[in-house]
Amino acid sequence: MINAIQSKLEEYTGEILGITRIVAAFMFLQHGTQKMFSFPVAANAPFELLSRGGIAGTIEVFGGILLLIGLYTRPVAFLCSGLMAFAYWLAHAPRGFFLWTVGNGGDAAVLYCFLFLYIAAVGGGKFSVDAARGG
Fold it and tell me: Are the CB atoms for 85 and 113 separated by under 8 Å?
């Protein structure tokens, strides 16, 4: 039974990876639109392009869009992974013991960091512009 499930999942790894990339990019994009446009919820601070939040928001919006459609997936995912590592150590780790991410609010940053690092390594999967271009 377990082998049958595993076999079926292996059959759809490209599709699962593509869907995972799309969902993660859509969620990531919302962090940027919150910072830049106070959408879908109000921003924590006014948007200033040349601030830490402004640069992060810009990368989140444009990186999120590129990841959503799967264009230049590997380098964009690597950039977004680095952004999330930077965000974790700069904004979350100082709030509490760095291994207890739920306590310092950094759990999403850590998950995005490693998810995007994985996507940078394996590519965007199916349903991506990169795959359609043969990249």
Answer: yes
CA distances from 131 to 2, 52, 71, 79, 122 (A): 30, 33, 9, 20, 12
pTM for the model stands at 0.90
Rg of the chain in Å (alpha carbons): 16
pLDDT on residue 97: 73
**Three-point CA angle 74, 76, 82, nearest 5°:** 105
pLDDT digits (tens, 9 = 90+) for 42-94: 888 888 999 999 999 999 999 999 999 999 999 999 999 999 999 999 999 88
Residue 42 confidence (pLDDT): 86
3-state DSSP helix/strand/coil % of the chain, to nearest 5: 75, 0, 25
For 38-126, where are the alpha helices, taking DSSP H only? Answer: 52-69, 73-87, 101-104, 107-122
Rounded CA separation 127/21 (Å): 9
Domain edges within the chain: 2-132
* Residue reference for tokens 């993660």: 24
